[in-house]
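Protein in question kept underneath.
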Amino acid sequence: MTDISTQQKLTDERRFGLWEWAAYAGLCGIWGTTWMAIRVVVQDVPPLRAAGIRFLVGAALLLGGVALRRSIVLRDAREWRAVRVLSFTMMAVPYGLLFWAEQYIASSMAAVLYTSLPLVVALLTPLMSHHRVPRSALLAMLVATGGIAVLFESTLSVSTRSLMGGAAVLGAVAATAWSVHFAKRELHDIDPSVATGWQLLGGAAALLAVSLPLERQASHWTPQALGALLFLAAGGSAVAFALYYWLLKRTQPYQISTMSLVIPIVAIVEGAALLKEPIPPTMLAASLVVILAVGVVLRAREDEDRVQSGIV
């Protein structure tokens, strides 16, 4: 049994109020649209350069706005260290991989592969939060892995580059899953807007530093590419990540990761409607298997937390 304050804290972190639901829905809508926006941008701008510019503009908007109201300086060495780590693991690595991958695979496919995020978050839970993963969750992970294998076989096997694109998305998933746990532990006392702004700036510096020697091709700033990049910078970065860290303070990592179940629905619909991307029956069936399996994992984690905390 835990004391009353601990029980109340766990209960509050699971309870979604009106503002939490609004933030959750807003994030699903914004990040569901970013998959298509990334696909549009990388057709005209090299991927690492595009991601770096996205984060640079987002950092300027966010830190500039915060600086008008209060200090943007972090308080101590631990906070600076946390931001530096997340600049690399939450921003530069996963988004560099995602932008690169969408040169070779459809935005809807990238979003569906990203639904494995809650599975990886749950898999890392025993290592990073010292909780046991239930057997039902482990079984669901195996089922979901089978669904992802079907996606690879049916839609990504046409070329080596498409397979590499799918693998890059899964690499982004792994980096993000680790970062979610790390951010939950290290950013709890840092203002979400300040933490996000510095991470975006650090991620931009890393991506642009890598882009300079590797991406020699010119950028073509078409109206479509420019509009998509501005949306990614303002909405997908400055607004969305500040909301994300605000919500992460009030939820458990496995709860907030369930957004990846809703985001593919937005991405698939937009990809089919606006980019004329096909939706094969095999893709729909495999996606359903992955989503159902992830749902089992999340339910199992919630039940276990209730038992451990003495809340029934």
Confidence is low (pLDDT under 50) at residues 1-13, 307-312. Residues 228 and 291 are 28 Å apart (CA to CA). The chain has 13 helices and no strands.
